[in-house]
Amino acid sequence: MKKISRRSFVPSGVLGSILMPGIIDQLMASDNQTSSLHHPAKAKSVIFLFMSGGVSHVDSFDPKPKLISDHGKKVTFEHPETKNRPGYENIYLKKPDWKFSPRGKSGIEVSDLFPNVGNQIDEIALIRSMHTSHSNHYNATLGMHTGSFNFSRPSIGSWVSYGLGNMNKNLPSFLVIAPQMPYAGTQVWSSDFLPGEFQGTRVAPGNEPITNLIPRATSKEKQIQDLSALDAFNKIHLGTRMSDDILKARIKSFKTAFGMQSEMPSALDLSSESKNTLDLYGLSPGQKDGFGWQCLVARRLVERGVRFVELIHTGSSANWDSHGNMADHGVLAKQVDLPIAGLLKDLKMRGLMDDVLVVWTTEFGRTPFNNTADNKGREHHNWAFSSWLAGAGVKPGITFGKTDEYGIKPAENPVHIHDFHATILHLMGIDHERLTYRHAGRDYRLTDVHGRVVSDILS
Amino acid sequence: MFNLNHLKAISMAVLVFIPWLSSPFVQLTLAQTDADLFESKIRPIFVEKCQKCHGPDKQKAGLRLDHKAGWQNPGDRGAIIVPGKPDESLLLKVISYNDPLLKMPPDKKLSDQEINAIRLWVNQGAVDPRVLNDKKVGSISLDQAKAHWSFKPVQNNFDLKGLNSKPIDFFISQKLKEINLPLSPKADKRTLIRRLYYDITGLPPSYSQVINFLNDNSPNATEKVIDQLFSSSNFGENAGRRWLDLVRFADTAGENSDHPLPYAYKYRDYVIKSFNNNKPYDQFVQEQIAGDIYAAKNPTPSNSDQIIATGFLAIARRFGHEIEKEMHLTHEDAIDTLGKSLLGLTLGCARCHDHKYDPISAKDYYALYGILDSTRFPFPGCEPKQQPKDLVSIETSNLADPSIVALQKKIEKQKAELAKILVEEGVFIQSFLASIKTPVLLGKGVLKDGSEQDIATTAIEGNLPISVTNGQMIQLSLFPQKNHGMDSTKVEFVIQEVDGKRQLWNVKTDLIDVFLQSNPAKDSYGNLSVWAFFDCNNGLRLLPETLLDFQKNIGLNIWKNGDTPSVFVNASNNIINAWTKLPSRSFFMHPGQNGAVSLAWFSPIKGKISIQGNLKDVHPGGIDGVDWKLELFNANIQPSLNALTLLAEKKKSLNIELLKLQQSLPLPQLAYAVAEKPGKNIKLHLRGDPERLGEEVPRRWLEIFGSNDISNPSASGRKDLALWVTSPANPLTARVMVNRIWGHYFGKGIVKSSNDFGLRGEVPTHPELLDWLASEFIRSGWNIKHIHKLIVLSDAYQQSSTSSVIGLEKDTKNDFYWRMDKRRLKAEEIRDSLLFCAGDLDNTSGIKHPFPPEATWNFTQHNPFNANYDHNKRSVYLMVKRNSRHQFLGLFDGADPNTTTPLRQVTTVPTQALYFMNDPFFHLEAEKLATIAFAFREYEKIVNTLFQISLQRPPTESEKTIVLSLLNPKADKNLTVKDWASVARLLLASNEFVFLD
Questions:
Q1: What is the CB neighbour count within 10 angstroms for residue A132?
Q2: Of the candidates A190, A172, A191, A170, the residue with the CA atom closest to the CA atom of residue A181
Q3: Cα–chain-centroid distance for residue B183?
Q4: pLDDT greater than 60 at residue B10
């Protein structure tokens, strides 16, 4: 298998040191990684944008004129969120709160909720027929990340890391930028039964984005001195024991950690970014939080060879779960719309769209109906929602799949989350049926016994 | 010397010389009947090498070798076996590749040992108990299943007479001969004592303990240390932690909001105590499956441990939002854990269909499921129902005390009285509801999360103000906005008479200061029953219960029914910080999970009124708010209300009396444990779907072990299950446990897949050793410490971990045990050692975690339980959450509390190195270690002390040079504790500290 090196475009933040030459020479080395597993990969990295709480498809990416004309019409069916629920004996169609219009050359309709992303629609393959198997946040969030709705299983980022390894040994292969905890907690990025090195490392905006990243030594020189002494001490220990990989690996891990101490802050340090770039993401100079910050950091991480970067917006509360008032969607969309569009533009300008797959999704959609037509909110809706992919290997400016006239159920080409996962793995050069791990007497897969690659959206 | 007296000789029918057990100095003999020979040697050859082409699926040359009549039936070339005459048997010619026409098996000749075994078998008359049996268990044939090594009986007829080595070493050495390697030399004493301390107790020795051992030249010096360590309570903590790994122990339930389990710690302590007391393993397992049943037979204050033991089942993970709806997943977790941890069988795989590889059918699964379904599991609480229930009371007082018996009789009487009133009330409510005419809607609205809204009244028939007559009811109802939550809402509500006396009814001024006096309540003009608070779920019911100064918040007074719905006031002049900020001098309403709460006003006048009000969500961030409705009921309802009030008063006084009586009972001690329910078989879930039911499956034991029925259909069957699992005839239980104990010391089992002894699991590297240990385990009365001790006393365990080129060449993975394997300390061992070296370890037993009081719980998937309670006790006593792992334990490969962990992984990742470089706790402990050493003042002494505490040895010269490169006393005369801390960090972060030779 071909080994690739991203070394050329990774600016090293680590300066050489006569005290610890051994540390430096291994800093930028990348090993145990492969560019593809089962077939040539289209994408080398993934940026996975996860909107927590459930984004309404009929207000954003799935225009339903009939929903407007039939607003207030009574509908009858058994829905998991309204069945046997007091006050929901009758349900009525409810029109979207945002206007849809054709965007870009492709003329795909996107609502005013996402005007900036709408302007990038020619880069995007939009799936309007997504569906999932659970209408609860916890379970659907777990499902979207692990393919399992109840049990802890490895996250998609862990599977990808396990399959492909890392391209930068100074950074973890799977990073999750999450200002708050998501539903289902750390299980969302857990490696579960896969080896621990494939678990997601959480990055949180703030003073210490990764636990224990900030050197506690009084100076860099002091830390290098301490680590050199430790290195020498461990080498004496190693010398009295025959060649032992696990001892060597631990000796090396200090070098990597030392590298990470500067590599990670340098990835997070936006001071070298031009004003034009900051503007793309809607960032003001010095800003260290917000979704724009998450997006720009994600670009910098994939540039450094991180395999899987997930951005969570926002967490298990104050999120897209607009039961009370859909107007909340407006506030939240304002936080993400410009940065996501900026990310797409920036990746394109830098030629990274050929290497990076951008995924935008949520755990489920929202009901195109409610118990009164003038109810301001919408409920959970796992029967249908929208997601999109952009970048490496993805056909740009297309839509795939359709929902029925009201956006209640997929009417054409339904895409289950297992299919969605199979497609992402496929773009990474992985056959989802062959990426398995033997655990407790069984071969496990991300897609369990399901999944079908959505080949119509592949370029 | 090892005691061999108990290895009893046995009368031998036939002596068989087993070549691979041969030894120049002792002849190991296995007593075998003809049938033994067939079972142990011949059947496996047929199954593995022949039956693919000569079995149920294919009968090449018309021959079947899967039952006796099959080979007796002449094939294309006549009978293939002539019993007693191997040389005349075609079979022998063919398998020896001596037949010119036929060589079998065609792809690879059998080994000489296999051919010799078949020759012997034919010579002895070809005894073959097999009859034609196409029977399948699960998806494999019974024949194939029975041929699998782990389903065969444990070999227990070893005769090790005259052995001049310890049995373990005998078996290990025999196998090592295959690769011509000896055991490594004994580890040096310092290495050995460190190994023994960590492996037995999980803690390092102190320097003086090491010195004492080094100076003890008596022949039993090692055994003395071993005995001392096994009698230390730290042994139970270490062995207990491994058991807790296995049974996926946690202090939270694992459902969507991860409710705490405040009593789970008792099970943890029970496990530790059991190992320390060396409870026989069969009893240990029986108690965990059916301890409550044993305890019920003979209730004494001292057998509460048996009830607590069933925590093994009770702590099964809960799933989803409403956990009762997902009990089939909880049962799967329990069956899966039981199968893997006790039997080494992946029983959980048979939930949706017959097991693909092992002889376990879906019916087997649902036979066990029925047993669990006839068991009451405790309810830990979940988002819609916050408070726990069905916990088991463990009486520590004397139940026979006559005063307590009398008290309990009174309580029962009172309860019966109360039940009568409830029936009466129910009847009344029905007629009350019937009397209410359809109300007139005066207004409604939706209050979204965190917002505020005026109560705007719509005109009735174009007329405002509203006309009312005496006894008519105006009702303001607040509904939960969605099924997942409800909210605290501040309510202002004023009714004013438009003309006439212009009387004013204000909920604040009328009610706040006299709030708990009555429901219904009077107004400020002295009219009785003007205000009332109702639970609107399923009719209208006056809120029955009161709470004064809730959670010691003075002025926070509540009317409620259960947890919710409720109405409450903050009567104080201060903001109260309870579950949310409650403004002073305010009135609040809180709907229930399933229905509304209402505030009603019964008109004491005939006239016209106007209504004004305001609603404010005072618990923002809970995502939702409430829906509201304002209605006028035209009928004169007040008479009914008065009758209802009377009933409510009666109920209240009965309740108060009952509460007093209950309070005078001794406080019940509770356990998170299971209890019996009426026994009931359940129907098979087709493809694992609890909504699609198949045929009823009787509760019984696994078919592969004989399908025994439960002894008493009206009981759950757990007691039978406990006995089946621990029967000495069960081929798995003892093997699985001794294999685990082996793994504790060698880092891998004799069967490496220690949770899977099935057909897809690994085969034992040392089958005879495994069986010898298992038979010794049963023979010793399931004596756990006995097996531990046998292992640590062996030369195999005590050998050096030094590697060798030739060893690595011949056996890279050390499957033959030619040396000891190095191991990294486990997460708990690292943390405990840091505390130990810093002089910070509180080496006392565990405590209850400081969870918030149950009454205050309001965990949701949006805001799950996620506290941390740190302390300086051993790590086994840390609180374990299912949905968010303990950061340190997660970082260093701690157990996953969501599933059984048979052996810890060891990963080496840079984030671990970051811990040793930058973690505040690590830095703090290093500084404390430096402080201890610094007390010795002199440079040399300080260095020595640091090494002695952390590595239990003095420094070497080259190590002193490294220390000198960090701290040079000549360059810096005033070295401080902080300076020395860098040396302490070096030692505590070193490979020598973290790895065990």
A1: 26
A2: A190
A3: 39
A4: no
Chain centroid, CA A76 distance in Å:
36
CA of B340: which chain A residue's CA is closest? A440
Beta strands in A112-234 (DSSP E): 124-131, 174-177, 201-203
Q: How far apart are CA A432 and CA A450, in angstroms?
A: 9
Stronger pLDDT, B89 or A382, i.e. the higher one: A382
Distance to chain A for B193, nearest Cα, Å: 19
ipTM of the complex: 0.76
- Is the pLDDT at A382 greater than 90? The verdict is yes
Identify the three-state secondary structure at position B671: strand
Residues in contact with B531: Cβ distance below 8 Å, sequence separation at least 6, in sequence order = B505, B507, B510, B511, B520, B521, B522, B523, B599, B600, B601, B602
Read off the pLDDT of residues B546-557 as tens digits, 9 standing for 90 and up.
888 887 788 899
- Under 8 Å CB-to-CB from A170, ≥6 apart: which residues? A27, A28, A256, A259, A260, A263, A264, A304, B910
Which residue among B321, B340, B908 sits closest to A249, beta carbon to beta carbon?
A: B908
Which backbone phi and psi does B538 adopt, to 5 degrees?
65, 65
Residue of B319, B862, B915 with shortest CB distance to A212 = B915
Q: Do B966 and A225 touch (CB under 8 A)?
A: yes
- The highest-confidence range among B42-46, B455-459, B583-587, by mean pLDDT, is B583-587
Q: Taking residues B29-53, report their average pLDDT.
A: 76
Chain B positions touching A228 (Cβ under 8 A) are: 965
**Sign of CA pseudo-dihedral B402, B404, B408, B414:** positive
Q: How far is B219 from chain A (nearest CA, A)?
A: 29
| Residue with the larger pLDDT of the pair B311 and A83 | B311
Task: Write b or e for each residue in B835-850: b if 16 or more Cβ atoms lie within 10 A of its Cβ, otherwise e.
Answer: bbbbeebebebbeebe
| 3-state SS class at B745 | helix
Helices B638-664/B402-435 angle, 10° precision: 160
Q: Closest Cα of chain A to B124: distance in Å?
A: 39
Q: Angle of helix A220-239 relative to helix A245-268, nearest 10 degrees?
A: 160
Q: In this predicted structure, what is the pLDDT of residue B558?
A: 93
Give strand pairing partners of A313.
A51
Can you give the length of chain A in residues? Answer: 459
For the cut 70, the answer to whether the pLDDT of residue A21 exceeds it is no
* Cβ burial, residue B719 (10 Å; 0-12/13-18/19+): buried
Helices and strands in chain B, H and E counts: 34, 30
Averaging pLDDT over each range in A416-420, B103-107, B629-633, which range is the top one? Answer: A416-420
Q: List pLDDT tens digits, range B640-671.
A: 777 777 887 788 788 778 878 877 777 678 99
pLDDT band (50, 70, 90) for residue B639: confident
Q: Is B861 exposed, middle or buried (0-12, 13-18, 19+ CB in 10 A)?
A: buried
Chain A residue nearest residue B596, CA to CA: A86
Check residue A13 and give its pLDDT. 29
